[in-house]
Every structure is written in structure tokens, then in C-alpha cells.
Amino acid sequence: MAPVCSAVAADPGALAGATPGFHRIDWPALGATLDLAILEVEAALDAWQGKADAWFLDGFAPARNPEMWREPVLAQVAAHCAPGARLATYTVAGAVRSGLAAQGFAVARQPGFGRKRARLEAHWPGDRIEPAMPRVAIVGAGIAGAALARAFAALGVPATVFSAGPMASGNPAALISPRLIAGDGPEAQLCAQAFRRSVDLIAATAPQAILARGLVRLERTPKDSARFDRIARDHVLGRTRLRACRPPPRRHSWANRWRWAALLSHRP
Ligand SMILES: C[S@@+](CC[C@H](N)C(=O)[O-])C[C@H]1O[C@@H](n2cnc3c(N)ncnc32)[C@H](O)[C@@H]1O
Q: How many domains is the chain partitioned into structurally?
């Protein structure tokens, strides 16, 4: 895990384009997948649907950052424990010990490392259940089937694909076109994250498959101009640049009705 920890610690925002929300990042070389939430802790845990086998609580000292250790946060941690989950933290503050115990953890103070005299270990009740390896069959090897097979492989789950034709429906090329939604609401975040995830995934796994980047969006209604301006201002697209282009020459019959805006996918 050391390379993953160093990469995340170095710049977690850069990994995911610094946009708020959930981001899935693959490290195929390590056989690891990271789900990174750039959110307030309570909102992140509330939205997360997983169960953890292990926790490390590392949210600054409780005296300096009580937000991270509040009862609703510890309740969310408990709610997302797999049977037999283990928890560790460097703080042995009384409020954290009693807060975790109140949620049902068995809490034990242990000798610390380095300059720390003590640390905390806690156990959630139950015995760890080793999940059985699922058996997966995917019928059809279009874009969706091929993407599913890749996602299962990244999770270490072998999948059998049944298909009569070539993979990805035999298409010679494909287009990833993001839905541009103004604001930073959940739908705007989901579309922006899906776009970035697709582009990052292809860039990492099959860079030779990228023929071109960039997107041209035409204004179709009078409201689009203001909407594009709002999208360009919003941070939800992270390192993606949006810019307005000059209208096309008037000799084009549609020039009086539509102006241009271009979204340029930009990776430093
Ligand atoms: C001591 S740092 C530890 C970071 C990381 N575990 C590491 O080893 O590099 C504490 C982290 O908690 C995050 N944090 C503090 N309060 C938070 C809150 N209320 N919600 C979400 N994250 C919070 C900070 O942004 C910071 O990244």
C-alpha cells in the first residue's frame, strides 16, 4: 500500500481533478482500487454504501478538530463496519474512547509508536466473513459488457463473457460526450465525475485508443449562452477548461441561430 499512500498523501485533489464527490481510482499494478471522497466526513459516510474491514481515523486532534469526532460521525463509522472490523487511531482522548465504546466498539489503549506513548485500537463485534468469490457471466460484449468485464477484472473477479460478435460491438471508434449541467448539485457532480473517470480510465489503460480530445457544444436556445457561462464558472469540472468561441462565419445557414462553445479536456 505504500505507493498508494504516498500518491494520495502527496496530492489527493490532483488524483481526482479536485472536484467534490466520490472518485474511483484504479491501481492495476497493485491490484488495488481506491474510492476517494472529497467531502465533509459526515456527508461522505452518509453517501457511502460500503462496509469496512479496517478503519484508520486520522482527522487531526479532537481538541483542535472536534467536527471529525462528533457522535454522528462515530455512529456512521459504526454503521459501516463489517463484522469483526478493526479500528485504529493515534488519539487516546477520553471523548474518543467513550464515543467509540458508546457505539459498541471494544476499545483498548495500546503502547504507541515513536514519540507517541499510547494509541487506540478498537474492535467491532462479530467474526470476519471471508466473502465467497462470485461467479460472473456477462452476456453480450458491447460497450457495457466490455466495461463490466474490465471493472470485475480490476476487482480481481474473473468474468466469463458470452458474445457472438467482436468485443465492443466491433465499433471502429467511440465518442465520450459529457452531459454539461450547471451548478454543483449531485447530478452535475455525477456527470462530471463519470466524464473524468472515463477519460482517465482510457488514458491509463489504452492511451493509443484516444484519437482526439475536445468537444464542441452548440447553443441551441437563447438560454444556452448563460448556461454555458455558468458551467464555465463552476468548479465541478475540475481541470477541464470551457471557453466560448467566436461564432462561425455567417455564410453558414445556422450561424444566426447558434453560437459556439467548446469544452477542452485538459490534462497538465
Ligand atoms: C492529519 S490529516 C491526515 C491525512 C491523511 N490521513 C494522511 O495521512 O495524509 C487530517 C485530514 O482530515 C481532513 N479533515 C479534517 N476535518 C474534516 C472533516 N470535517 N471532513 C472531512 N475531512 C476532514 C483534513 O482535510 C486532512 O486531510
A: 2
Show which of 140, 174, 208 is a domain's final residue: 174
Distance CA 121, CA 102 (A): 15
φ, ψ for residue 91, nearest 5 deg: -90, 140
Distance CA 165, CA 142 (A): 9
From CA 247, how far away is CA 258, in angstroms rounded?
A: 8
Q: Is 214 domain-assigned?
A: no
Q: How far is residue 47's CA from residue 23's CA, in Å, rounded to a whole number? A: 13
Is 87 found in the same domain as 66? yes
| Residue (of 61, 56, 62, 98) closest to 77 by Cα position | 56
| Rounded CA separation 52/68 (Å) | 18
**Domain range for residue 84?**
50-130
State the distance from the centre of ligand 1 to the C-alpha of 56, rounded, in angstroms. Answer: 11
- Degrees to nearest 5, angle at CA 37 with 32 and 41: 130
Answer whether 59 contacts ligand 1 (Cβ < 6 A).
yes
What pLDDT digit, counting tens, does each position of 214-257 carry? 777 777 777 877 887 777 776 666 655 666 555 555 555 444 43
Ligand 1 pocket test, pick from 11, 55, 58 with the greatest ligand atom count within 8 Å of Cβ, gives 58
